[in-house]
Design brief:
Shape of chain B: globular
Structural class of chain A: alpha/beta
Number of helices of chain B: 9
Strand content of chain A: 5-15%
Distance between the termini of chain A: 27 Å
Oligomer: heterodimer
CATH class of chain B: Alpha Beta
Shape of chain A: globular
Number of strands of chain B: 5
CATH topology of chain A: Rossmann fold
Number of helices of chain A: 8
CATH architecture of chain A: 3-Layer(aba) Sandwich
Number of domains of chain B: 1
Helix content of chain B: 40-55%
């Protein structure tokens, strides 16, 4: 199936669809709200931008809901535990994340959209797919798995150079995250080197996924205000559609 | 078409049992395991829905009725993947005979009955190879139902298929649900080369047939331990009623 570009200006609201089979018994035409996804690495400014979008949207009278990875009632605690112990193999971890995603999709995202909310998703299936693809998992398998996902109304990928990500992560926490450094891949024993290599591979995969899923790549190296302006502009146009 | 472990040149072999709750399959695979152990075969037993880590999430989901057909399917796939990657594959590489009480066909039958698209479910599990031998224990629906329903006043929400809203009566819902699962199993029986065993027969007759077929299809000599292990203390047979309960909670 040919995927249509998902740029917010090129689509209308009645074009709602799932990427694949979707969730059984969901009536797409009832999903009146908007699903907006912000993607990017740790330190790319995702949470800052989402907080600003929420302020602005609520000030303009829109109801919002926020979702993100590892926040489901069903499995978030178990998933956290599994990651700490580093005991799960790749397919297992991948399916665990998919369960977490599906739980939020069905219990939060879809009901909120039905109620006309604007749902802001801090990362979505693209990060999950990219992480797995970097680790050599089969893309076709992942596409089938995430065929349950709803196509968002807008996806912004905040792209920040790996060197800049290192600086931001270190200035915030004085340490690099094990998983965000791809330490499980054995790219380098040096965490700093591993982080750079890993983030660059993820960016390459995101560029590749962009061709399929058509999300908007936003230059995240710019100032917070400039980026927010870019996002507002696109979202304003999206909200003006009827 | 999926390949078997033999076709993939694994030194080990995998034998799976499938069937409805109450078909007696757990008893049969237990007896098969006892026989293989007594013969000095390297054997490992794995049960559906038993991965420690995933279990706590599954039981929380079931208790609080949080699961939808999609998350029900995914959480069981997670459980399977964990057992498959951490236990089954290494053991099969090491030349074990692995016995599985339920395999991916359980998911194919149940998840599709719950309304998940068949090719989506099959896609989830396409990392798993086909068992070298799959027994399907086919009891009359009424026999299975009676075995489960006798002496069990309360059916659990998901096991009765109450999430499908087939009937407001759990017993009626359970009957309809199990009937549909049986139909799903029968529809894939040929495709996956199930050895259909008449589970209405007595335990001994069935077990004799199972052992005979395993002996014919698998060259057991190859799986004998080179150095004999000290005999383990006789295993405590678990209360059969409890075992059925565990199984149907899957």
């Amino acid at each position: 199936m040919k995927t249509q570009p998902a740029g917010p200006t090129s689509r209308r609201t009645n074009h709602r669809r799932f990427y694949g089979h979707g969730i059984p018994r969901v009536r797409l035409e009832e999903l009146a709200g908007k699903l907006i996804v912000v993607e990017g690495a740790d330190g790319s400014g995702r949470s800052t931008q989402i907080a600003r979008l929420v302020d602005w949207l609520e000030a303009s009278g829109h109801a919002t809901v926020q979702v993100g990875l590892k926040r489901s009632t069903l499995v978030s605690a178990e998933l956290e535990k599994a990651q700490e112990g580093n005991i799960l193999s790749r397919t297992t971890l991948s399916l665990f994340y998919a369960t977490d995603f599906a739980d939020q999709l069905e219990n939060i995202i879809l009901p909120a959209l039905k109620a006309g909310f604007i749902v802001l998703s801090d990362r979505y299936i693209y990060t999950l797919m990219a992480r797995d693809m970097v680790r050599g998992m089969d893309e076709a398998w992942l596409k089938n798995l995430y065929g349950i996902a709803l196509e968002p109304d807008a996806v912004f990928y905040l792209e920040v150079e790996a060197e800049e990500l290192v600086q931001r992560n270190l200035s915030k926490k004085a340490a690099l995250d094990y998983w965000e450094s791809g330490m499980d891949l054995g790219l380098s024993r040096d965490m700093f080197d591993s982080f750079l290599k890993y983030q660059m591979s993820v960016q390459t995969i995101f560029r590749q996924l962009q061709k399929t899923y058509g999300f908007t790549i936003v230059d995240g190296n710019r100032s917070v205000e400039t980026i927010t302006e870019t996002l507002w502009e696109k979202i304003r146009a999206l909200l003006a559609e009827k | 078409m999926m390949k078997t472990f033999a076709e993939l040149n694994f030194p080990g072999r995998l034998i799976a049992v499938e069937g409805l709750d109450g078909s007696g399959k757990s008893t049969q695979i237990y007896l098969l395991k006892r026989w293989l152990e007594a013969e000095g075969i390297k054997v490992y037993f794995s049960e559906w829905n038993s991965s420690e880590l995933v279990k706590s999430a599954t039981s929380k989901g079931k208790k609080r009725e949080l699961l939808t057909p999609t998350t029900f399917s995914l959480i069981h796939a997670t459980d399977f993947a964990d057992r498959y990657e951490r236990h089954l594959l290494p053991l099969l590489r090491a030349g074990y005979v692995v016995l599985c009480d339920r395999y991916i066909f359980t998911a194919f039958a149940r998840d599709v009955t719950r309304g998940c698209p068949p090719d989506w479910v099959r896609g989830l599990y396409d990392f798993a190879a086909q068992p070298d031998l799959t027994f399907f224990f086919k009891a009359d629906l009424e026999v299975s139902l009676n075995r489960i329903l006798e002496g069990r006043p309360k059916l659990k929400f998901f096991e009765a298929g109450m999430d499908l809203r087939l009937s407001s009566d759990p017993y009626e819902s359970f009957r309809i649900f199990q009937g549909r699962i049986l139909a799903q199993y029968m529809a894939m029986s040929e495709e996956f080369d199930f050895v259909v065993t008449d589970a209405n027969q007595n335990v001994e007759t069935q077990q004799a047939a199972v052992r005979k077929l395993v002996g014919e299809r698998i060259d057991l000599e190859r799986f004998r331990r080179r150095s004999p292990l000290p005999l383990p203390p006789p295993a405590q047979r678990t209360n059969p009623v409890e075992e059925i309960e565990e199984d149907s909670a899957a």
